[in-house]
Amino acid sequence: MQFEHTQLRDVMLIRPRVFTDARGFFMETWQRQKFGAAGIGANFVQENHSRSTCGILRGLHYQNPHAQAKLVRVAVGEVFDVLVDLRQESDTFGLWEGFRLDAHKHEMLWVPAGFAHGFLTLSERADFIYKVTEFWSPEAEQTLLWNDPALNIDWPLPAADIMLNDKDRAGLTFDTCPKFA
Hints:
The chain is mainly beta and 181 residues long. 6% of the residues lie in helices and 41% in strands.
């Protein structure tokens, strides 16, 4: 596996080794020793799988308290995955970065605790799989507004083509959302 640091502190793009033959492919998506050697000592407690159609935006979600670190990947389709650093002590606090993740490249993304996270489905359908280090806590759930002008996220679809649920549409602005000390 290759672990590549990104522009955001502590975030890593992970490229697994994929073994392909006439039958299909095989890859490791999690291996404690390899991830530990890269500085990711996660203890996952839950794995989630969502399916979305083109134009669905899920996020930008986080929990505060009970912050979750996540290992995310796409099993089917393609998404634009976005992270916003909400850790006030971080030198990348308030910055965002976007990644195109798809089922063909098999790349994964390590999202440390303290980030808002979301994705926009770009393909006809996308299956998004992610492991988390803390259990889902409805009372700790927070939503950062996906189109906050202060963040100026460059989503790859026009706003008119993006579909959200009510919770995501009513997210908090960066200025008013709870941050991490």
